Amino acid sequence: MRMRCTFDTQAGPGQVLRAYTDFTDRRLEIWRETLRPDNYVLLDRGDTWARVREGSLRMGVVLRYEWGGPDGVRWTIEEATFCERGGGRLGVRPLDDGGARVDVTIEEHGPRGLAGRPILLLKGLLGPVVLPRTSKRALDRFAEEDRAR
């Protein structure tokens, strides 16, 4: 499954990157529509990377996130309940109005278990619609809260 989506947000590029690389307890608040608290564990963290267990519904993954270079944020699946391998990339560009355009590419391959193939199919069909909507809401909310501080 390969999925790509682009969306605009009120959050500036720096805010987008901070929201995606915040691995404190605040992560659960920022991404409350897509992360389950009982499925989130920070496993390890450095200055420009983090390993986490996270997920939604019954899909759990261990991801290694890396950031700090010109590529935005990248993640690699180290372990997943529904696929053998995969990862993604997030790129951010500034917009003239102070917001940002966010490009997300996700690839997940090798269905695992009975649910693997249907999950990858659904993610490929629904992801390009659901991911931009939920991410935009989260980032717009993050930007408003950030400005209020």
Can you characterise this structure?
The protein is α+β, with helices and mostly antiparallel strands and about 150 residues long. Helix content is about 35%, strand content about 40%. The protein has helices at about 15-20, 25-30, 115-149, and strands spanning about 1-10, 40-45, 50-55, 60-65, 75-80, 85-95, 100-110. It has a seven-stranded antiparallel β-sheet, with helices on one face. A hairpin with a 2-residue loop joins strand 3 (about 50-55) and strand 4.
Number of strands: 7
Label the overall shape.
globular
Main pleated sheet: 7 strands, antiparallel
Span of the ends, CA to CA = 40 Å
Helical segment tally? 3
Give the radius of gyration: 15 Å
Strand order of the largest sheet: 1-7-6-5-4-3-2
Mean model confidence by pLDDT:
94
Amount of helix: 25-40%
Structural class of the helix and strand makeup? alpha+beta
How would you summarize what this structure contains?
The chain is an alpha+beta fold and 149 residues long.
Topology:
Layout: E1 2-9, H1 13-20, H2 26-30, E2 41-45, E3 49-56, E4 59-67, E5 73-80, E6 83-94, E7 100-111, H3 113-148
Antiparallel strand pairs: 1-7, 2-3, 3-4, 4-5, 5-6, 6-7
